[in-house]
Amino acid sequence: QVQLVESGGGLVQAGGSLRLSCAASGLTFSNYAMGWFRQAPGKERVFVAAISWSGGSTYYADSVKGRFTISRDNAKNTVYLQMNSLKPEDTAVYYCAADINRRFYGSGYYGGDFGSWGQGTQVTVSS
């Protein structure tokens, strides 16, 4: 079955950077768009960023545009999220997702469940 394992979370001061990684197995990685979502305490999980199967198209939530960069390495079956200029409001559990349900269309996101999820990694930004 599909397995997605996130790493790279931690505690960082405001203005700092972190790089999240997500290693995928159990699927033909290069066939699927990939995404990152996050869930803050007491809130719903929300979309952060997505990348097409080739890496040629990306899409970001307005709240992270210009600060976060999603990328992928199909040879390593890994997707990354580089997070710069972090703010306390970025504190959340970050989840990697494989777009099994085809919710990403290159220039946007239809909404809804990507279909396959990792267990999440905690990111805490202190002020």
Structural notes for this entry:
- This protein has 127 residues and is mostly beta strands.
- The protein has strands spanning 3-7, 10-13, 18-25, 34-39, 45-51, 58-60, 68-73, 78-83, 92-99, 115-117, 121-126.
- The strands form 2 sheets. Strands 2, 4, 5, 6, 9, 10 and 11 form a 7-stranded mixed β-sheet that branches.
- A hairpin with a 4-residue loop joins strand 7 and strand 8 (78-83).
- The model has no long low-confidence stretch (mean pLDDT 96).
Rounded average pLDDT: 96
Strand content: over 45%
Number of helices: 0
- Determine Rg (CA atoms, Å): 13 Å
The biggest beta sheet is recorded as:
7 strands, mixed
Poorly predicted segments: none
For the terminal residues, how far apart are their CA atoms?
40 Å
Quick take:
The protein is mainly β and 127 residues long.
Layout of helices and strands:
Elements: E1 3-7, E2 10-13, E3 18-25, E4 34-39, E5 45-51, E6 58-60, E7 68-73, E8 78-83, E9 92-99, E10 115-117, E11 121-126
Parallel strand pairs: 2-11
Antiparallel strand pairs: 1-3, 3-8, 4-5, 4-9, 5-6, 7-8, 9-10, 9-11
Keywords:
11 strands; 7-stranded mixed β-sheet; mainly beta; 4-stranded antiparallel β-sheet; 127 residues
